[in-house]
Amino acid sequence: MGLESIVPCLPRETLEKIATVPPPRIGMGSDSLGWRWEDNRKFTTRSAYGALCGEGEINGAVYWRQIWKMSVPQRICMFFWLAFHGRLLTNEERVRRHLSVSIRCSICSTGPESIEHALRLCSKARRVWEILIPPSKLSLFDALSFEDWLLQGIRNVASIGTRDDLWSTRFAVTCWLIWKSCCAQILGGVDFNSEGLARHCRGAAVEYAAAHACRQVPRVSI
Ligand SMILES: [Zn+2]
């Protein structure tokens, strides 16, 4: 049965979700079932309890709190809030609001520009992640749903990133700078330089984390 035969039976949102799932690639290994609420995909009662309490859902308050706890400027927290709510002005969103006639990505022209495409799948964004993420983590990077990918990024878990305290900061800064670079290329004709952007992301994450640590130092009263 082809995909076209189920199109009339499913809502548009579901079809779009299916369309965003990347096809299998050589080297990714075979599909397997896993528990989505643990980084190692193994079931635990702790995570099951958390999921039942709503912590595993994208709308769970714990994740909203996590966004505002990141060691980044408020404008980046706001950017994530918009991304989680699907409010970034991608070409898909522009067409939905009748501001544009094409949903195609203006940078790579290979697919519709959704939020996931802009931050994760577009060739320029993909190159940035390939520089920042260890090669051994890239298969999981590709396999996670977009929601899980965002959540794992801001939760500072090392499953898709690097084993240091800076990962969530670097992840947040990278998403934000990728989005800014997309806008700069589309609106201002500034070339999206993936290598330069990756270097900038590393430096900016260190600076933001250091600034955040300074603000966390408790004042000593005498
Ligand atoms: Zn693209």
Q: Helical stretch count?
A: 12
Distance linking N and C termini: 76 Å
What is the alpha-carbon Rg in Å?
19 Å
What small ligands are held by the chains?
A: zinc ion
Order of helices and strands: HHHHHHHHHHHH
The outline comes out as globular
Question: What attributes characterize this protein structure?
Answer:
binds zinc ion, 12 helices, 222 residues, 0% strand, single chain, mainly alpha
What does this structure look like?
The structure is a single chain. The chain is mainly alpha-helical and 222 residues long. The protein has one domain (59-216). Helix content is 56%, strand content 0%. It is built from twelve helices and no strands. It has helices spanning 3-6, 12-20, 45-52, 61-69, 74-84, 91-96, 115-121, 123-132, 138-143, 146-154, 167-188, 194-216. α7 packs across α8 (123-132), α8 packs across α12 (194-216) and α11 (167-188) crosses α12 (194-216). The protein starts with a helix and ends in a 6-residue tail after the last helix. Bound molecules: zinc ion. Zinc ion (ZN) is lined by residues 105, 107-108, 110, 117, 122. Zinc ion binds at residues 105, 107-108, 110, 117, 122.
Describe the protein's topology.
Elements: H1 3-6, H2 12-20, H3 45-52, H4 61-69, H5 74-84, H6 91-96, H7 115-121, H8 123-132, H9 138-143, H10 146-154, H11 167-188, H12 194-216
The structure holds zinc ion.
Zinc ion binds at residues 105, 107-108, 110, 117, 122.
How would you summarize this macromolecular structure in one to three sentences?
This protein has 222 residues and is mainly α. The protein has twelve helices and no strands. Helix content is 56%, strand content 0%.
